[in-house]
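Hi P.,

Sorry for the delay on this. The queue was packed all week, but I finally got your sequence through. Input first:
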Amino acid sequence: MGLDQIRRDIMHLAGHLAHRSALSSEERLAAEFIEKRFQEYTPHVALDDFENTDNFHYLFASYYSEFLLISILALWWPVFAVCYGLAVLLMYLAEFMGHHLCSRLMPQYDSQN
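Then the structure:
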């Protein structure tokens, strides 16, 4: 693969394909183009399909809202707020470690690697 071919591939992905946001059909077209190009050089190429949430900002906003609620509850019921805060913290940490506790309740869309 020469530099000219690399430049043509980049121009095709960046210039000729429509803007591809995450979880869209344009993203799928780009992944299929890259898969086709790699199949010319290696036999072990596959698309990895998976489902993902549209926007993780909503998920983390819900956790941060819980922490705000815990802060308010701590003024009147400190023991309850500590127990509730510990539960929310463990759920928050589990989410970062890949265990989909609350994110699986959000809408899921198809994506691929």
